[in-house]
Amino acid sequence: MPQPQPKGAPSAGGRLARFFTTENMMLAPAMLVLASVSIFPFLYLIYASLMDFSLAIDNPTFAGFRNWLRLVKDPLIFQSWKVTIVYAVTGLGLELILGVGIALLLYAAPWGRNLFVTLWMLPIFVAPVVAGLLGWFLLNSSYGLYAWVLQQFGVHTDIFGTVATALPAVILIDVWEWTPLITLIVLSGLQSLPTEPLEAAEVDGATYWQKLRYIILPLSFRIIVVALLIRSMDIMRFIDTIFITTAGGPADSTKIIGLRLFDVAFRFMDIGFAAAIGLSMLVVTIFLGKAFIRVMYGRE
């Protein structure tokens, strides 16, 4: 005897009707194309990570989990992850502080906001390769303008050729290029804040720092986390600036995991090992995304 459904529970036909709505049917072709473009490379990446391409790239042999065991044992991979962590944490921290600070200044600016935002956004439209070339020409020890200025203060060193200065240099180039993105995202969130709490605080005689601490920053917390989420996913993948300026040197001091993947795949043609590295980067990116989302929705 069939069990009666609980009152108010949707029937199977109702669920199907909600699925086959006009909006979903219009989105279906695009979603199928995107799924095919994304799923096939992902499945092939898993397949490649289990194969050995060293003998013949067009006729690989089955390697089992050899590439994955090598991934967890290779000291060069751990070194690249260490460099990536320093590069990402330092870069994101500076971009967050500068981006949020400038967004707050622009939010409070009585005039000239649009002009300054337009000028401040210019580095975003510069290709990362061009940003790397610009940094290379400005910091080159032979003819760079910034290098010449540093030499006037007694700093005589090859910035991109010294282990102690190469990584800070590429971090500063990344901060210069991508801080405006943080500013743009946070400023858009600030401009959408409700005005009633700020007006009430103004009537109660709250100072700017009190409004910033108890109203503006708490209300902007989610948009700041979104900005960090976007940049954290990009910072591991973008290797253009480092490739142009240092190519991972000197002594692998700037070789982040994305550049290590590039070298393994296209310099040493070890496609199977490169596929395992790429999948590990995907896992880390998904973990970061889930962590940021948990932080974002954990403050309700």
TrEMBL record:
Question: Where is the signal peptide, in residue numbers?
Answer: none
Task: Name the predominant localization.
Answer: membrane
Q: Where in the cell is it found?
A: Cell membrane
The membrane topology of this protein is:
Multi-pass membrane protein
Q: One GO biological process from the UniProt record?
A: transmembrane transport
The residues covered by the ABC transmembrane type-1 domain are: 81-292
Q: Which InterPro entries match?
A: MetI-like, MetI-like_sf
Membrane-spanning intervals of the chain: 25-47, 85-108, 115-139, 212-230, 271-293
Family named by the database record: Belongs to the binding-protein-dependent transport system permease family.
Name of the protein: Carbohydrate ABC transporter membrane protein 1, CUT1 family (TC 3.A.1.1.-)
What species is given as this protein's source? Desulforamulus putei DSM 12395
